[in-house]
Amino acid sequence: MKHFFLLLFFLFTTTLSAQIIKEIKYDGMVHISESVALRMLSFDEGDDVDVKMVDDAIKKYFKQGYFNDIWAEIDDGVLTFYFKEKAIISKVELSGWKENDEDVMDSVIQIKKGTLYDEKILEDAKKRIIEAISQEGKIDSVVEIQTDYLENGSIKVTFVVNEGEEILIEKLDYVGVYGLDSDDFNSVIANKEHEFMGWFWGQNDGKMSLKDLQYDNLRIRDYYMQYGYLDAKVNEPFVRVNFNHYTADMSYQIDEGKPYTIKKVTLYQTKNVIAEPLLREMISLQKGDVFNIKSFRTDSEKIKTLIADKGYAFVQVVPDLKKNKKDHTVEVVFKITPGDKVKIRNVVISGNNRTLDRIVRRELFLGPGDMYSLTDLKDSRNAIGRLGFFDGTTIEEKRINNKTMDLIVKLKEAPTGNVQLGGGYGSYGGILVSIGVNDRNLWGSGINVGVKAEKSQTTQNYSFNISNTRLNDSDFSGNFSIYHSVYKYNDYSVSSDGINIGVGHRFSRYITGYIGYGYSGNSYNFDSTIDLNTTDTFYFEDYTKSGITVSAKWDNTDDYYLPRVGFDFSQSFEKTGIGADADYLKSRTTFGKYQGLEPYIGFDAIFRYKARLNIVVDNGYIPLAEKFYMGGIGSVRGYQSYSLSPTIIDDSGVIRRVGGEKTFSNSLELSMPLIPKAKMRVVTFVDWGFIGDKDITEISRGGYGAGIEWFSPVGPIQLMFAAPLNQQTGDKTSSFEFTMGQRF
Predict the structure, then answer these.
(1) Could you give the C-alpha distances from 572 to 316, 512, 548, 665, 696, in angstroms and in order?
(2) What is the C-alpha separation between 373 and 312, in angstroms, rounded?
(3) What is the arithmetic mean of pLDDT over 286-291?
(4) Is 206 helix (H, G, I), strand (E, B) or coil?
(5) How would you classify residue 566: left for phi > 0, otherwise alpha for psi between -120 and 50, otherwise beta?
(6) Which residues are CB-neighbours of 29 under 8 A, at least 6 positions away?
């Protein structure tokens, strides 16, 4: 302080013993109003005031934390308090670590703009930075604090970070392991021994993670309990660090014990709400089996779900183990306390600034007055996710009393209207670009409207479509579209004008059906360089198509664009020949399986398997444009779209693609977070496909590569970089493709 309290005592004792204060003034005080400051005093104007009373007032003001210095003066009965306030922090920056990361600023720095400058606050932030870096496995980090006074009197604070060194685990030993293979522990622990070429995918890099170190022994013990070792003890690891080279040796001391077998499975209900035989059907643990803690937890969850689906929202399933250490058997006990049946009092929708309430409510399987069901709650959350209208969906359960609850549906709107871009680059065709405008949730009504104008080196496509998945909020859907398209091949093009109309119905929460009619007129145009007198045009005759399509789809995934749970399966049949030239039966089958891996590996990776099987049967006439072609996103990446096909050599000696009657393609994908804040992910993939006429394996090609999946502000974007597999002479390859607006 500028003037210490002792000095204040001296000044007042020489000038003031006890005086009547005529007036109280404040100078330099901003953060506290004068009225509040006056209320904090133990005296008023007109009172006799001595030195101790003024000193106590200064101390009280100083404790508020707003001031660097406070002093008081008295002149002819006028008491004036002078304040020197702390400067305001107007800007906080990080340099050398996590720069411009808002999450780090909020969770680690924790200093907001407008905070009063306080060295203790800065030192606490410095400690948190060092702790956060140490959790990443780096030690000896140094953080310096720089303060700069700006022209307006505020302070800019910069934390200059010099990250320490990562610790590399060179050796990892396990002592006392006999019943299991210690190599299997790598599947559950985070801190692993460094392997050769540890930087390569699938190899252990050996980097120490301090935040996981305290849990790894518990993970190993849990792994033992999956094989019945209920007495297993795994001590915290002993770590020896070489600070000269920043390497470490680690060892675990393990006492395995012996595995336990299940002697008995006991079910105890405080109130009998489910017949015991039905409960036992849900349980995988059986008498005589080796105990498995993972199955134990799964069985508990199954029991809870079964009873919660009967309306017992607050059911508790308390598992217990009664061990007999003499014969190493265990009695598995499930104590079930159902509680009371619970009804839904109200459902509150929040966060849907654009989408109408009814669009959300019609996807919910629980409403006011309904009995609670855990399965219905989960399915409601997934159904909202499948709409593709929201970036995030949570349904909170707000307990009112033992028999009622409210459901709070919290939504975060996602962009549904976007400019759709698509294209790619092929080694033969060059750059391909298309553009369209689409809104899957027009004015928040759930209606999908799209206008597309596509122009590229090989295609032209102009179309309008409108569809509604819930006509008048019913289980019926409807669609209408009209289009004009031109697809250019090597030396000819196909021009099509058509219309489609159809109606669908949702039969259950996962199953939908559809029936539609379509008509199109199609014609071929040849380049002026082609001599039609010498070219066999048998395959290139103009034709009309009129047909009915019937399809069914199963979809229990949890999200439209980026599913992590469930699978989808669809089957459609198209029959043409109704008063038109084309006459065939076409079958299309698609399958997709999606599995989030975060519960198993600790981060948000997603495994996907996708397969497509297409078959067309000739009932009189199959135009070339109605056959199947393979290549590009959606079949086999690494090859140009529609470039893989059976071929013929016509009368002029030209090799022409004529399409296949059968094709099958499938893909394995692994999607991982790249920049979570930007909603950007990286995906690796392997595709393989077959196409042919008589034999589906006539042509076999594959592709592999990596790409970027990005939920951009204008819609989902895919950027794919691919290389071909099993490339043959004459194949048209493609190294890069991109799309926008499609499901990942």
Answers:
(1) 45, 12, 10, 17, 19
(2) 8
(3) 92
(4) coil
(5) left
(6) 37, 81, 83, 85
Least confident of 3-12, 54-63, 719-728: 3-12
The 3-state DSSP class for residue 714 equals: coil
604 and 695 part of one domain: yes
Q: How far apart are CA 271 and CA 277, in angstroms?
A: 15
- Count of C-beta atoms within a 10 Å radius of residue 474: 11
Residue 560, pLDDT > 90, answer: no
Q: Which of 35, 50, 85 is the last residue of a domain?
A: 85
Q: Do residues 593 and 580 touch, judged by C-beta distance below 8 A?
A: no
DSSP string, 8-43: HHHHHHHH-SEEE--EEEEES--SS-HHHHHHT-S-
What is the structure's pLDDT at 545?
93
Tokens 């019609």 found at = 362
What is the CATH classification number for the domain harbouring 309?
Answer: 3.10.20.310
Band the pLDDT of 201: cuts 50, 70, 90.
low
A 10 A CB-CB count for 94 gives 19
Tokens encoding 505: 């119905």
Per the structure, the count of domains in the chain is 6
526: Cβ–Cβ under 8 A, 6 or more apart, which residues?
491, 492, 532, 535, 540
CA nearest neighbour of 395 among 384, 404, 387: 384
d(CA 657, CA 407): 58
In which band, very low, low, confident or very high, does the pLDDT at 12 lie, cut at 50, 70 and 90? very low
Residue 535 in tokens: 């070219």
pTM of the complete model beyond 0.85? no
The last residue of one of the domains, among 309, 337, 365, is 337
8 Å CB contact between 132 and 125: no
Whole-number Å distance between alpha carbons of 81 and 102: 41
Distant-in-sequence contacts of 641-644, Cβ < 8 A, 24+ apart: 641/424, 641/432, 641/734, 641/737, 642/487, 643/426, 643/731, 643/732, 643/734, 644/689, 644/691, 644/699, 644/701, 644/731
Residues 144 and 292 in one domain: no
Per-residue pLDDT reduced to its tens digit, 256-274: 999 999 999 999 999 888 9
SS3 712: strand
Are 405 and 424 within one domain? no
| 235: nearest Cα among 252, 247, 221 | 252
Cα atoms found within 13 Å of the Cα of residue 163, Cβ hemisphere only:
16
Residue 4 neighbours by CB under 8 Å, 6+ apart:
none
Q: How far apart are CA 615 and CA 586, in angstroms?
A: 6
Which residues, at least 6 apart from 536, have a Cβ–Cβ distance to it below 8 Å? 650, 651, 652
- Residue 483 banded pLDDT, cuts 50, 70, 90: very high
- Integer Cα distance of 650 and 148 in angstroms: 80
